[in-house]
C-alpha cells in the first residue's frame, strides 16, 4: 500500500512561488518528488485571486465562508434564545 506523503504549508507555498517565478510544473515535480497533479492543486489553492484588492486564495475564501456559516448559525441560536427569554 502506497503511503501518502504530508507536506507542510511552507513547502507548498515555496513550490507555488517557484512556479510563479518561472519554474515549470514538470521541473518542480522532478526536483522535489511531488506529482504534477498535486502541484497543480497547490497552485489552484494558493494562488491569489486578485492582487489589486489584496491576496485571497481559494483556500482563504473557503475558510471565510466556513466562518461565515458558523456565525450565521450562532446568530440564529441567539435569536431563538432571545425569543425564549422575551416570553418570560
From TrEMBL:
An example Gene Ontology molecular-function term:
DNA binding
| Highest taxon above the source species | Bacteria
Q: What is this protein called?
A: Transposase
Q: Which organism is it from?
A: Anoxybacillus kestanbolensis
Gene Ontology biological process terms from the UniProt entry: DNA transposition
Offer one Pfam family short name for this entry: HTH_Tnp_1
Amino acid at each position: 500500500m502506497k503511503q501518502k506523503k504530508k507536506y507542510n504549508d511552507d513547502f507548498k507555498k515555496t513550490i507555488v512561488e517557484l512556479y510563479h517565478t518561472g519554474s515549470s510544473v514538470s521541473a518542480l515535480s522532478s526536483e522535489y518528488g511531488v506529482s504534477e497533479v498535486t502541484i497543480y492543486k497547490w497552485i489552484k489553492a494558493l494562488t491569489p485571486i486578485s492582487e489589486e484588492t489584496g491576496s485571497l486564495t481559494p483556500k482563504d475564501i473557503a475558510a471565510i465562508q466556513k466562518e461565515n456559516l458558523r456565525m450565521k448559525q450562532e446568530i440564529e441560536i441567539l435569536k431563538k434564545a432571545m425569543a425564549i427569554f422575551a416570553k418570560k
